[in-house]
């Protein structure tokens, strides 16, 4: 499996200017490549290489391998959508590979190409990043943000074979409760929502102020809310994966893909819905589980909070409020998110029988399949 190790470069003032000039020149080359690709409708990297390689080296004075990486960056940017011309920021990230960047972990320095030739630049990182860098393979992105330079290194780790499990720990995601598992443990969102509201209110106030000091404070606050939310998701995902590992269970998650496109909410609730980082939490659970050899399955989330785990009754009246569940058939009651997590766990534990394409077609037509 692939993970990314982020390390911070500690360049001197002279090296800082060289790195900035390198990014500026490389992104200028990317814009020139993009202009040619758009005007000639040529988006394949090999075709762009044959047409532009020699001219780019002469015009921008870049190393051979950095030109190749710029060509790859432009070609990759057009893979998702060829309906709009791609432009690149002056200090946008540029990918480096082992030919133009080497890690020297014993001295914690990197040897990287700049417009003035090779430079040895020290870096700093945490213990987790040091362990990941032992498995560094492939590209590393040189990233400039907030006045600092970082390297985002791709690391290839061996993935253990998923363990054979019979039961699953169901996890229900939500806005009021970020995550609730089938054991009843609740990870509340009140603190996260309070921080989001406080940041949103402060940003609105500073934007209305519009003074130089207000803009300076806005730049200082930039990214704090996002980093806080990611740290919270890291802590929650670690606890969930550790619990599943200790109890020898798999993890069952809701398949919430396309949720924001399907759900319609009131105007006042839009900010809350679109700031809900459910996908980030699920991805963190997923990669931590893969590293621990814990299987993760995705289940259909429909009616998980309306289905009674005791009698199987499905009714929208089973959920009289956001937080409470009470079955209209048997009277079973409890926390709605916990009920949903239990249903998610049970759906993951059920082995569905094999159905042929003909049987699936009959089912879609509303007829019972022949067994």
Helix content: 40-55%
The ordered string of helix (H) and strand (E) elements is EHHHEEEEHEEEEEHHHEHHHEEEHH
Number of domains: 2
User: Which structural class should the secondary elements be placed in?
Assistant: alpha+beta
Mean pLDDT: 86
Multimeric state of these chains? single chain
Number of helices: 12
Number of strands: 14
Please tell me the CATH architecture of the largest domain by its name. Answer: 2-Layer Sandwich
Radius of gyration: 26 Å
Major beta-sheet overview: 7 strands, antiparallel
Q: Which outline best applies?
A: elongated
Uncertain stretches of 5 or more adjacent residues: 351-371
Q: At the third CATH level, what is the topology name of the largest domain?
A: Nucleotidyltransferase, domain 5
Strand percentage: 15-25%
**Gap from first CA to last CA:** 41 Å
- Per CATH, the class of the largest domain reads Alpha Beta
Task: Characterise the protein shown here.
This protein has twelve helices and 14 strands. It is an alpha+beta fold. The protein folds into two domains: 2-156, no CATH class; 162-371, Nucleotidyltransferase, domain 5 (2-Layer Sandwich). The strands form three sheets. It has a seven-stranded antiparallel β-sheet, sandwiched between helices. A hairpin with a 4-residue loop joins strand 3 (101-104) and strand 4. Helix 1 packs across helix 3, helix 5 (190-209) packs antiparallel against helix 6 and helix 5 packs antiparallel against helix 7. The longest helix has 28 residues, at 13-40. The chain is elongated, with a radius of gyration of 26 Å.
